[in-house]
């Protein structure tokens, strides 16, 4: 019998790094990219069901796209309780957004200090290669040192957008299966 499990992924990063664009392109299977910037002022949620390879199971992911402006932090962090995973996004062409990744990661992980929260680090806007300020090595090193998987994307070019979300869904599914096995062994 197929199993559907639900996962809550918190999407964080500075304003204008492309968090909403990544979520919308992923949610719409690449059919929607808003060319006009609209600042997220709270939390916007999108859902998508992902089938797990080699099983009949699927993970329904809830992406909580959070505002990146400091002024909204207290408001949006109220939606971050019990996360299944974290998506930290920065603009590969803006070094300051990369420098702030630590702050965003810490804020989400503070919601569950005694729990390992799997996550990904996304370098977005890699289509702006001529303006790139953060090297892939710097991104990979940060991700590795914080237990995150590293991905490069371009929401605008719809390049590599699915991979981080599919990765997180599969990681969440593995953790779910491990917990089921642990519970079975206890009974």
From TrEMBL:
Pfam families tied to this protein: Ras
A Gene Ontology term for the protein's cellular component: intraciliary transport particle
Source organism (scientific name): Sinanodonta woodiana
Protein name: Intraflagellar transport protein 27 homolog
Stated family: Belongs to the small GTPase superfamily. Rab family.
UniProt keyword annotations, A-Z: Cell projection, Cilium, Flagellum, GTP-binding, Nucleotide-binding
Domain of life: Eukaryota
Compartments where found: Cell projection, Cilium, Flagellum
A single MF term (Gene Ontology): GTP binding
Coiled coil, from the record: none
């Amino acid at each position: 019998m197929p199993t559907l499990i639900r996962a809550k992924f918190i999407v964080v990063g500075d304003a204008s790094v492309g968090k909403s664009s990544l979520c919308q392109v992923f949610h719409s299977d690449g059919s929607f990219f808003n060319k006009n910037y609209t600042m997220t002022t709270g939390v916007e949620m999108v859902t998508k069901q992902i089938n797990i390879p080699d099983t009949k199971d699927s993970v329904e992911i809830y992406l909580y796209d959070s505002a990146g402006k400091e002024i909204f932090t207290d408001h949006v962090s109220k939606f971050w309780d019990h996360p299944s995973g974290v998506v930290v996004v920065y603009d590969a062409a803006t070094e300051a957004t990369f420098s702030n990744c630590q702050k965003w990661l810490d804020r989400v992980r503070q919601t569950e200090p005694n729990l390992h929260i799997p996550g990904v680090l996304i370098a977005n806007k890699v289509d702006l290669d001529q303006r790139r300020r953060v090297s892939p090595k710097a991104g990979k090193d940060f991700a590795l040192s914080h237990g995150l998987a590293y991905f490069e994307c371009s929401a605008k070019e719809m390049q590599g957008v699915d991979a981080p979300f599919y990765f997180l869904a599969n990681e969440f599914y593995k953790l779910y299966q491990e917990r089921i096995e642990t519970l079975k062994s206890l009974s």
